[in-house]
Amino acid sequence: MTRIPAQIAALALILAACAAPEQSGTVWPGEAPPEPERMPDGTCQAREVVPAVYEEVMGEVQVVQAEIAEDGTVIRPPIYRRQPVPKVISPRGELRFEVPCPELVTPELVSSLQRALLARGYFDGAVTGQMDAPTVAAIRRYQSERGLESGQLSVETARALGLIAARLAEIEALGDF
Length: 177
Description:
It is a single chain. The protein has 177 residues and is of the alpha+beta class. The protein has 2 domains: 24-50 and 93-174, no CATH class; 53-90, no CATH class. The chain is built from 5 helices and 7 strands. It has helices at 6-18, 107-119, 133-144, 155-160, 168-174, and strands at 37-38, 44-50, 53-64, 67-68, 74-76, 79-90, 93-99. The strands form 3 sheets. Strands 1-2-7 form a 3-stranded antiparallel β-sheet, with no helix packed on it.
């Protein structure tokens, strides 16, 4: 019978303890989505931080500082090297939009949302009534095609999918389709 060295056994225990936990229904890393802010008129708004987008471009980076005498004359000029440097394509920002208030997001609404997205080819998971990762991904795909880069269900999307009532003025503005 072979014996496993103590170090290997300890390493195996550590790796087992560090193994990725089974994925829960939460899709925001380490926490639930931020709670919507209730506005004075009774509506709710979501707030999402939009990260900055960078691109690497060729630029000059100073690698050796200039040597300057006390009287201000340059003894040795600075030395630069060409290398890729980050350039901001779009700055960090904040996205605010109207969302259904938490008391409206029931398992029944989520089930209807899942069925609506399934019928349109955006969702391919099981209809569970839970706002799980496949549901949020489907919401993100649907909304991003319509200009909203978010996995949080907007009121506009819920109305477009027929999940919540639309204002009569909005329906009349659409006209015949």
